[in-house]
Structures are given as structure tokens and as C-alpha cells.
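Entry 14. Ran structure prediction on the chain below.
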Amino acid sequence: MASSGTSKTHAPNAELLLFNESMPMADLDGRAGFRSECPPDKKVKVDDLFRFKRRAGDYSVSIVALLLALFFLFFFFTETGWQSRKLPDGIAGYLAHQMGLVELEGRVTRFGRILKQSWVIPMLCLLLLIPAAAWNCWNARAVHRWRQRFLLPTNARYEWSQYVAALEYAAYFIVYTLAVPVLGYLLSTMILGTFLTYRLGYRSGRWILISMATSFVIVLIFRSGLQIKTPLNIWAYDQLPTALRAFMLTYF
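Output, C-alpha cells:
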């Protein structure tokens, strides 16, 4: 009688189980259906993919971004040559001539000639980067104080962990650049492409073959077709016969 009673009553925490009963195959007539803990898929709107939302650690990341922008500004004058640059007396006329607006002493005016100087593009980037970083930091501080007021989490551990995790792939690229002078562009590219595919979770034989074929096609396009320059002295190619070494250095 006890066993028949327990088969008809559910446990108090039955909703926490994947099945209707503690023994999923106890009901052989099919009345006990499968109950999944995975939430149903939701429709993804395109607008949601580009929606900006501040997270708990956004203020800390914004401070670091502002400090980087100020760091670039601090070394702008020394790295671009402005520290030792001698400007003419008529600075207004000089700038107007550089912009292609006026002529000076019979010299031909070319519109936009100032863009050819090495300091112009970095300066334009700083004119956009510094105000944007400052404005972003100001708004992030306001959201941070609002979260503190309502006792919401402000820990930046998750955000920084994502940045640290991205350094793993930067390390892979550094190892790849160091491997090219040793193994050559062909072998290094095929090893990197196959390894990254395996690292991202595509570990079946089919995906390994696809990654190897894709890496080989990349080498054919960039090295054999476009003749992208590679180191002249490659250790692996130096071990080959002279004719084969010249062929590998030319096409692979």
C-alpha cells in the first residue's frame, strides 16, 4: 500500500526535477513527459544587438579609457615632432596655405596638402578621442553613483575578466609572428588556423579539415597571389634543397 501511495503523489520539490517524478522511467505508459530546465528561445530583434547598456563595472573601464586618451595626448608633441618644430611668424597664413586656401610667394596651392603631414591624423584622432572619453566617463560616473544609491552591484570583476580573457588571443598572435621566421608562413598559418578552430570548440574531424583547407587558401591568396612579404631567412626553408627553398620562399 505504501508503494502504491508513493507512486501517485509527487515530491514537494518535484518542480525542481527534470521529470515529473523522481524516477523518470517509472511510468511506462508515457504519462510522465520530459520537463526541461532550459528556457525557450526568444526572438532576437536587430535593434537589441546594437543597444548600448551600461554594466556594473562600466565606470572603471571608462576611467582607464580616459587615462589612455590623456596618455596619448601627453606624448603627442614629442612623438610627432612638434616639440622641436619651428613655426613661421605668420602662422595664420601658413595654416591657410597648408589647407590649400591661399598662395604664398608664388607656390602652387593644393587643397588638403596638410593631410600628408604625419602629425595631422593623430591630432584629429585626439580631438575626437579625448572629448568622447571624457563625456563617456562623466555619464558612467552618474550611472555608477545611481547604482550606489540604490545598493545595486558595482563590482567590475566580470568586465575586467573579459578583457583579460581577450589577451589569450593576443598571445596566440604574438606566438604566430615569432613562429613565421622559424617555420615559414605556410606551416605557421595552418597550425594557427587549426588550433584556433579547435580552441573555439569545433573539434570534429570535419571542422579540422575545413580549418586546414581555409588556412591553405589564405596562404595562396596572400602569399602566392598578392606576394605579401615574409622574412627572407626562414629556418625550416633553409633545411631544404636550393631549388625547393627558392620555390617555398617565392610562393609560400
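Residues 1-24 have pLDDT under 50 and may be disordered. Will compare against last week's run tomorrow.
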